Amino acid sequence: MDRLSRSIPSKPQRDLWKRKVEQVAEEAESLKESLDKYFLRNQRRMREAQERAELLRRANGDSAHVLRVFDEEAQAMTSVHNSKRMLEESLSTGSAILLKYSEQRERLKRAQRKALDILNTVGLSNSVLRLIERRNRVDTWIKYLGMVLTLVILYFLVRSSG
Fold first, then answer.
1. Which sequence ranges form a coiled-coil region, renumbered to this chain (predicted)?
2. For residue 8, which of 14, 33, 137, 161 is within the disulfide window of CB 3.0 to 4.6 Å?
């Protein structure tokens, strides 16, 4: 994604994309660290539950309650693994979407340049060119709103799975 942000010709947009890429990377790293901490905490709890179960089994031979706690911890650990995998899949999907958007943007820019060259050679008026530029601005707004909507959906997906 860094490579794509460097390919943007205008400096303000490049800086904006660079910040967005950094924010997404920081957020993903933070979520990954949180999941790792939770995983380690659950692993420690499971180990402690196993040790308690072993001690209780030695003491009185009945450790069904402790084993039930151990099963609950194992289920929690499985849930953490699933959440981590889903988060990584969401991140890779988001990266792929951003890559495709960038490719489409470049393709559309080339097509726009060619169309403007043809229109200039045909001699169409400046008002048509202004209409095209206005449409381009509207498309840009739609693109950014789509990105924000995608981020909001991803946020709620991560929040609901956690």
1. 14-41
2. 14
Mean per-residue pLDDT for 140-154? 94
- Per DSSP, the three-state class of 14 is helix
For residues 65 and 113, the answer to whether their CB atoms sit within 8 Å is: no
Summarised one tens digit per residue, pLDDT across range 106-138 is 999 999 899 888 877 776 667 777 888 999 999
Instruction: Say if pTM beats, i.e. exceeds, 0.85.
Output: no
Q: What is the rounded CA–CA span in Å between residue 138 and residue 73?
A: 52
Alpha helices in the chain (DSSP H): 2-6, 11-60, 64-122, 126-161
The token pair at 25 is 């990377």
**∠ at Cα 145 (113, 29), nearest 5°?**
105
Residue 157 token pair = 């997906």
- Cβ partners under 8 Å of residue 9, min gap 6: none
User: What count of other Cβ atoms lies within 10 Å of the Cβ of residue 43?
Assistant: 13
